[in-house]
Amino acid sequence: MKTVVAVVFYSGLDDLDQCLKSIASESAAEARVVDTSPGQSAVELCLRHGAIHIAAPRNAGYAWALHQGFDSVPDEQFVFVCSNSDVVYQSGSLAELSALAARDESIVYPMQLTTPHGPVAPHIALTTFSPRSLLARWIGLGWKRGLRRQTHFVSQLSAQDGRFVPFPPEFGGSGAVIAMTAETWRRLDGLDRRFFLYEEDRALSLSARHLGISVGLALKARVVHAGGVMTRGLDFQTLDEAMTSERLLWEREFPGTGHLLIAVQRLGVGLRWIRALLRRRPEERRMYAALHRTLWRRDLLSSVPREADGFRRPRNYAFNPSEASRS
C-alpha cells in the first residue's frame, strides 16, 4: 500500500532538510510538505528532495494543515503519516509504520529518540486527558505518581516482544508522528481542526478509543525528535494558546462542566504566580499576572475567535505573525 507522509512546515529549514532527506531514502514513501511559512520558503527544499509542495493559504494550525495534505492525495487507499518537520526517520521506520497501520487498521506511533542512538523520550506516552491529569498538571496532585507510571511504561518497552504495543488506557501517543490508513483517517475525520496547536494528539487518542480503534507503539520504528524534549517555556501567548486548546478539549469531552476547568486553571496560574514571587522571578511573576487577568476577562469556552470558514483563529501569534493585525 502506498505511504504518504504529510509534513507540516512553518519554520526551520535545516530541520526540514534532514526530515525530507530521511523520507526520500524510503523508496515507497511520498512526501507532501504543507508549507504554512511566510513566503512559502520550503519550495526549494521540496524540489531538491522530490517532495510535493502544498502552498497553504494561511497558517491555521497543525491539524488543519494535515487535512490539507490528506485532501491533496488523489488515491482512495493509502497509509497516511502525519509528521512534524523536525523529525528524522531512521531506516525502515516508515515501512514498519505503514505495515502495522495497514495490518490492523490501528493508529501507530514510532519510538521517539532524543538523539540518533537514544535514549527513548518519555513523552512518547502522553497522559490521557482527564480530570485527574489536569489536577496533576495545574495543582500538582498526583503529579509524581503519574510521572512514575510514565517512566515505568517507557522503561519496560525494551523488554517487550513483538512489533506493536498498545498503550494502556492512561496513555496516548505524541502527535509528532502518527500513522494510520486513509480509511481510519476518514472514520475519525482526521485530527480535530479546532485545535491550532496542543492537545490535538490527546483528542485523537480519545476519539480512536471511542470508536474501538487500537492505539499503540511500533517498537521497531524509530525517529529522532530532539524538539520533543523542549518545554512550552514561559511565553504568554504560548501558554494562552495551550490553555485555550485545553478548554476546547474539555468542552468536547465533558460538555456543560467548563466552569470546573476554568476554576482549576485560574487556581493553577495563581499558585504559579505565588511561586514566582517567592523565588524572586519578576518576569515569570508579571507573565502569570497578565495571564491571570486575561483568564478573568474572558470566557474562552464561549468567545473563541474564528475565521470566516469556522476554524479557530490562533491566539498564539508567535506561530502566526502575519495574522497578528487581525486579532
TrEMBL record:
What organism does this protein naturally occur in? Nocardioides daphniae
Protein name per Swiss-Prot or TrEMBL? Glycosyltransferase family 2 protein
Q: Any idea which UniProt keywords this protein has?
A: Glycosyltransferase, Transferase
Alphabetical list of Pfam families matching this protein = Glycos_transf_2
Top-level lineage group: Bacteria
Q: Which residues form a coiled coil?
A: none
Which SUPFAM superfamilies has this protein been placed in? Nucleotide-diphospho-sugar transferases
Q: Which residues form the Glycosyltransferase 2-like domain?
A: 5-110
Question: What family does the database annotate?
Answer: Belongs to the glycosyltransferase 2 family.
Database matches in InterPro entries: Glyco_trans_2-like, Nucleotide-diphossugar_trans
Molecular function via GO:
glycosyltransferase activity
- Which pathway does the database say it acts in? Cell wall biogenesis; cell wall polysaccharide biosynthesis
